[in-house]
Amino acid sequence: MIEANPGAGAEGSLAIFIGTHRRLVASVTVKSSRPLMMPQIFVGKRPDELISLLPLLYSVCGVAQGCAAALALEQALGIPGSRRVNSARRLLVCFESLREHLWRVELDWAGYLGTAPRPDLIALVSKAAQNVRQMLFGEVNPFLPKVPEPQPVSCEFEALLEGIAQALAERIYHCAPERWLQLSTWQELDDWTKRGDSVAARMLCSIHAAGLSAIGSNPVAGLPALEPEVLERRLQASGEEFVAYPSWCGKAWETGALPRQAGHPLMSSLIGWFGNGLLPHLAARLLELATLMEGLRRGGEALEHPQVSGLGGGKPSEGIGLSQVETSRGRLIHRVEVAHGRVSQYQIVAPTEWNFHPRGVVVEGLKRLPAEDNDKLQQLAELWVGAIDPCVAFRVEVVPV
What we know:
Elements (H helix, E strand, L loop, with lengths): L12 E9 L2 E9 L14 H11 L4 H16 L5 H31 L5 H19 L17 H19 L3 H4 L5 H10 L3 H11 L18 H10 L1 H6 L12 H5 L3 H10 L3 H20 L1 H6 L15 E8 L2 E10 L2 E8 L1 H5 L5 H7 L6 H15 L4 E8 L1
Parallel strand pairs: 1-6
Antiparallel strand pairs: 1-2, 3-4, 4-5
Helix pairs in contact: 1-2, 2-3, 3-4, 3-8, 3-13, 4-5, 5-13, 7-8, 8-13, 12-13, 16-17
């Protein structure tokens, strides 16, 4: 079983069964023990009690969960959104996403290459995130509704970012992250993988040399913008079904780094060569890391001139709040109903349910893997699932049928 994040809480797990017949993948079944109805524990709670309880239940992407909850609650309570507060919250979500992407590189990629992981880089990002949270909000929980305005960032903020950027340059890119973002074609990326000896360069080089760049490529497209009013009606009408098996316009969609980065010239080139196969998914993680660094560098400026697109949605009706927040693994949706100062309904749609939908990107990719050898198929399946990245532990089992 592969862990989503060491120390993760009781978010359940995924068991993925791949049935093979005559050297072909005949079936893929995903069985989930994820407690999707857990948010019902919030019913009857005051908003501040909910915010205090949330991190105890959702330890993976807990900052994004807090941000989504705060936005939804403020909307339901009719509290005007503060641009500076939301920009500061987004800054904290960016730090968390940076850390989550680094977990995958240091655990999955280093493990695949047979090299020792470097937890010091993850620890550096985690410490910086704690310092910035303290810098902005002090001891106050930043996700409480109507939280006080954040403090301005100090020169220490720039020093923290410089330390992270330098570590990324040494460990991941072998150049400044912003310079790596200038790569625009598969040929340029290929040259970079052959020149560098970082864990990232060696991972991509190894995958391509093994002929695995396009494995898993499938027709599942990236999740489009979801109109808040329509989304709210879907959740209200078919809540449990939508939470467990979300779809839009009758189709399953992928959410995460690859769809978000699809407009970058490098990603456009890679998709042209390999579809949405394994190598484009791995490269998307590197694009995300570098893009997040750019976003964090603009963090201080954003607090003065905030841009908070993607952090909320239009208010459907009084007493109801809906938020959409982009996390490292994809789009996170929270919906809340508040009556008489207490929560009367709460729903969460996590990225995992989009990506591990029975007709989703993980299942469709697994169906297209080569199956001549069961041990090799197991390895490829674990690579593919890890590249999409569930928020929980998973195991893959290959079963002849």
